[in-house]
Amino acid sequence: MKLEHLQAVNAARRDRKAVILATDLTDGSDRVITEGLSLGGDLEAAAAAAFRSGKSGTVEADGRSLFLNVHLPPPRIVVIGAVHISQPLAVMARLAGFDLTIIDPRTAFATPERFAGIDLVADWPEDVLKDRPLDAYTALVAVTHDPKIDDFPLMQALRTGCFYVGALGSRKTHAKRIERLKEAGIGDIALSRIAAPIGLDIGAASPAEIAVAILAQVIQAFRRRDLRNAGGEAP
Hints:
Layout: H1 3-14, E1 19-24, E2 30-34, H2 41-53, E3 57-61, E4 64-71, E5 76-80, H3 86-95, E6 99-103, E7 119-121, H4 125-131, E8 138-142, H5 147-160, E9 164-167, H6 171-183, H7 188-191, E10 194-195, H8 207-223
Parallel strand pairs: 5-6, 5-8, 6-7, 8-9, 9-10
Antiparallel strand pairs: 1-2, 1-4, 3-4
Helix pairs in contact: 3-8
Protein name: XdhC/CoxF family protein
Domain XdhC Rossmann: 77-218
C-alpha cells in the first residue's frame, strides 16, 4: 500500500467518512475510493454495494479481480429525549450494532437509574452538539414532543445530512413543526426527509413496539441511503 493511500484512509476514518481501499489482485496496485465518488462501469456498482453492506471482499469489475477493503464509520443513533420509548430503543440499538447517545436537558427524565450503561447526556442539544456534531453516519431520533428541545437538533440533522431523521408526533403536530422549521429557513426538500409519524407502520402501540418500528426504519434508511448525498441540503 502506498503511504499516501494509507494516510488518506486514516484521514477518512478520523473524519468519520467512508472509504474503500481497492487492491488489484493481479498486479498489487491499489486506489482509494471515497463514498460518492463517480467511477463509472462495474466498479461503481461494486463499490456502492460494498459501502451499503460494509463488508469487504473480492469482486470482478471491468475485467479485473479486486479486493475491496471497506472502512465505514460506526453508525450511531442520537436520541433526543429520555422517554419511555428510548429505554427499549437503547437496548435494541446496541444489539443491532449501533452506538447510541440520549440527550435530554430534563434531569427528571435523564437519570442513570432509567438508562444504566447508556451514553446519557443531561444537557441541551444546542450545547451537546457543539462538541459532538452530527454527520452522515448518524440517525437523529427526536421524541420529546417539546419544540424547545427537538427543533434545533432536527435542523442540524437536516443541514449535516444525517442518513435518517425522525420525529415523534401526530400529523397535526408535525404540520406545526414543519411551519416552525420553514420559518427557521429549512427548505422543502430537506423537510421532506423527516420521517413523521416516526417508525415503520407496523401498528405499534407500546413503547417497545414503537422502538422496534423506529429501529427498523433506521436500518432501512442506512442500508438504502443515497451514497451521492452525504452532505446536507442547503436551506
